[in-house]
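lol forgot to send this yesterday, sorry. struct tokens for the thing we talked abt
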């Protein structure tokens, strides 16, 4: 786990609007635990700079000219799978959010988030948590509910305990909260999550969470 105190979290910002990009940089530079190492104006530049600068996290606008945030996220998951992507969006009602999850994004935040919310999201995602703000979670639920009307549920070969962990994850709980709720250790939670990711053939918490939503394992 990182706390950003001894080694700042190195962040690359990918945003095509100069004013928004500057605002994000200013907000992040207010946190001594975060260091902005580069700025990209489109998805392709985000990919190129990630390879060059090796940031700890990419803060990615979902809509950009040229290569958009979804395509860039998918490409980064292929070539830099250990670099998490935190998606920024100015809206909450588009299927593009689901595509971003499927591409491998690990967190989702609205652009009107406060500086505190933004920095907290960065720290949480770098530390391995998934993050979806409540309004965006509702959007994702609606989209998967719509898909569920035409797609039959897929079999999920999970143990009863793994299902409990997945349900808790899908409700937005972090590892500590899951451990407390199920009266198990955080180490055991991590072990269960590893098994869940492997069985569901997903790359992380956000994709696993949406699998649970899609299969009707959790309600909001």
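and heres what i got for the seq, position by position
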């Amino acid at each position: 786990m990182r706390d950003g105190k001894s080694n700042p979290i190195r962040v690359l910002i990918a945003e095509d609007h100069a004013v928004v990009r500057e605002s994000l940089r200013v907000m992040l530079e207010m946190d001594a635990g975060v260091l902005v190492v580069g700025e990209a104006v489109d998805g392709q530049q985000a990919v190129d700079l990630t390879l060059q600068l090796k940031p700890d996290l990419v803060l990615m606008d979902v809509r950009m000219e040229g290569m958009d945030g979804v395509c860039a996220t998918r490409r980064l998951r292929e070539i830099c799978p250990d670099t998490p992507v935190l998606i920024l969006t100015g809206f909450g009602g588009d299927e593009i959010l689901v595509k971003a999850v499927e591409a491998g994004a690990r967190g989702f935040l609205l652009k009107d988030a406060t500086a505190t919310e933004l920095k907290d999201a960065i720290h949480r995602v770098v530390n391995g948590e998934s993050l979806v703000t409540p309004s965006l979670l509702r959007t994702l639920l609606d989209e998967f509910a719509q898909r569920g009307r035409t797609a039959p549920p897929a079999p999920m070969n999970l143990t009863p305990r793994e299902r409990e962990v997945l349900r808790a994850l899908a409700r937005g709980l972090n590892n500590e909260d899951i451990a407390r709720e199920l009266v198990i250790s955080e180490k055991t939670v991590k072990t269960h999550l590893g098994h869940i990711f492997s069985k569901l053939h997903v790359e992380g918490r956000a994709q696993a969470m949406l699998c649970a939503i899609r299969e009707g394992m959790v309600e909001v």
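The chain is about 50% helix and 15% strand. anyway ping me if u want another try
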